Amino acid sequence: MGDLDRILSVLQEVRRRAVRIGVVLAAIFGFLLFFELVPFRFDLFGVSVPFAYPFPNPFYNVTAQLFRAMRAWMLPPNVQLINVGVGDSIFVQMEIGILVALAVGMPWIVHEVGAFLVPALRKNERALLRQIGIPATVLFAIGTACGMLFITPFTFRLLFFYVGAMGLAPYTLGVQDFVTFALLYSIAFGIVCELPVFIYGLTRLGIVKAAAWKKHWRAAILGALVFGMVVTPDNSGITMLIIATPMIGLYFGGAYFAARWESGRSSPPSPPRALAGAG
Asked: What is the pLDDT averaged over residues 226-248?
């Protein structure tokens, strides 16, 4: 098989994996945009259990339900959301649908990407991929959930406290600005939680020595501040610090575990104990 044949074979495999991922994400995205979840309760051993069933509804769909939940959970009561552009409500539903589809389909994405990479990896790289694949996915989900449920609502309330302290009128916020800020901010925390896995993986592969993470801690702090500035759409500086602070802590945590693994690998094995009564 020539080089061209190998390249074409790899491209065909990439296409096949991409199509499989696209089909799953499209199915999830379509469900979110064309169905609503109708709540109901049923009795199970005398206990009323909440449940929901899907019902076709392209207008008040799952994304609209999630938007209403985000609005009630994240914003103070005196903040008014307005529809600035004609198609803002449609774009908002699509943004929420894309995020949820990616979050729900992330295990499938990780599976397909891993299945594509495994044949080209060495034995230790395959072992590392199997070891960190699930933790990386779980950490991303936990970080995004914490950002959505706790950090982003806290940030909104903190910022609007300044509005109330100055005695300003009830704040009006564009619906697309609100959703874009909330989604980007929450996803940023999911990405930040991947940092320890990234540091540990590079050290396990021998690409970066553990001492290098400790040596360049000042550059890491600067990078965390820059990352927080880039992913936050406001210019207050508060949101930048809210993201950069846990990122710095996670950096040092990843560096600690990388150094611990490296020192454990380089330490010589302890000599066997002498048998009782020997000599």
From this structure: 81
